[in-house]
Design goal:
alpha/beta; Rossmann fold; 15 helices; 41% helix; 14% strand; binds 1,3-dihydroxyacetonephosphate; binds iron/sulfur cluster
Length: 319
């Protein structure tokens, strides 16, 4: 009779926090993390930020190893900027529904229909899409970037239709939109939000521009994750309905311990306002990635070079 052997689990140090600190010194590594990561990961990060801040940090780091606690497109952007550095992602399966909603072959056909259009792509896309773009943007600088493009220049905006619509409204520009979206931000329910506002009449609603127009209509403030964090620190209000992935509430509570942060509810009674991709990374996987120097981000050099140009363009247009 056979007995199934239990899978061998690698031994974990008792104190993961100090083991990670030791590995950072040993490898000359920097841990860059997004606000949607688990609180433990946020607490070991050397830098926490939105996609713009994270790419600016990746562009200027002196570390030999970048441990990227975020999703694949973010780590890939760090690799595009740092071909000679080792870029580690704790879980290589940490993707992004928005990036997946824009397959390169289909986008190439779509783009071919608008030969005189400039392509502005949200950073939440694959390196292949970046390589087909003229300028990359993030939620923090999308309006600023589109405003710098001559008014008579037609634009394709990809892949997020919600951010695209928001930018059209803010700039008064018409743009051809790729119809992609984020499964997390499209899960927020307008009806439940209205109910929440009635229950908390003094709370301000702060929302990420990846949300649908019907939800954004109820927001007192719309911005990138870093902008939302700063806004609730500076506001004289004491409670906020937070319409984005609730991971960011960890930093909001740290920055303003006396304020109240209410996560906006999704459509169903599920935890689907948590990004399933971001949450694949754990502190244990981050430790193992550093210890084993894998999984590593790699990409073909021709794609990297083509994707670098629109990222550099974004960085120069964001100062
Ligand atoms: P930010 O750049 O605003 O942090 O957005 C990243 C993201 O993936 C939002 O879903
Ligand atoms: Fe992608 Fe949405 Fe997750 Fe952000 S929250 S990483 S856009 S799936």
């Amino acid at each position: 009779m056979f007995t199934t052997a239990a899978p061998i689990k690698p031994a974990m140090p008792r104190d993961l926090f100090s083991a990670i600190a030791n590995l950072k010194r040993e490898l000359n590594a920097v841990v860059l993390a997004h606000y949607y990561q688990d609180p433990d990961i946020q607490d070991v990060a050397d830098y926490l930020g939105d996609s713009l801040g994270l790419s600016q940090q990746a562009a200027q780091t002196n570390a030999d190893v970048i441990v990227f606690a975020g999703v694949h497109f973010m780590a890939e952007t760090a690799k595009i900027l740092n071909p000679d550095k080792l870029v580690l992602l704790p879980d290589l399966d940490a993707g992004c529904s928005l990036a997946e909603s824009c397959p390169p072959n289909e986008f190439a056909q779509f783009k071919a229909k608008y030969p005189d259009h400039l392509v502005v792509s949200y950073i939440n896309c694959t390196a292949e899409i970046k390589a087909m773009s003229d300028i990359i943007c993030t939620s923090a600088n999308a309006v600023k970037i589109v405003n710098q493009i001559p008014a008579d220049q037609p634009i394709i905006f990809a892949p997020d239709r919600n951010l695209g619509k928001y930018v059209m409204e803010q700039t008064g520009r018409d743009m051809v939109l790729w119809q992609g979206s984020c499964i997390v931000h499209e899960t927020f329910s307008e009806k439940k939000m209205v109910q929440l506002k009635i229950q908390h009449p003094d709370a301000e609603v702060i929302a990420h521009p990846e949300c649908e127009e019907a939800v954004l209509r109820h927001a007192d403030y719309i911005g990138s994750t870093t902008a939302l964090l700063k806004y609730c620190q500076n506001s004289d209000r004491h409670s906020f309905i937070v319409v984005t992935e609730p991971g960011i509430i960890h930093q909001m509570q740290k920055a303003a311990p006396n304020k109240k942060f209410i996560p906006a509810p999704p459509l169903n009674n599920c935890a689907c306002n948590e990004c399933p991709h971001m949450r694949l990374n754990t502190l244990e996987k981050l430790y193992l990635a550093m210890k084993n120097r894998t999984p590593e981000i790699t990409l073909p050099e021709s794609t990297r070079i083509a994707a670098l140009r629109p990222i550099q363009k974004m960085l120069s247009m964001s100062v």
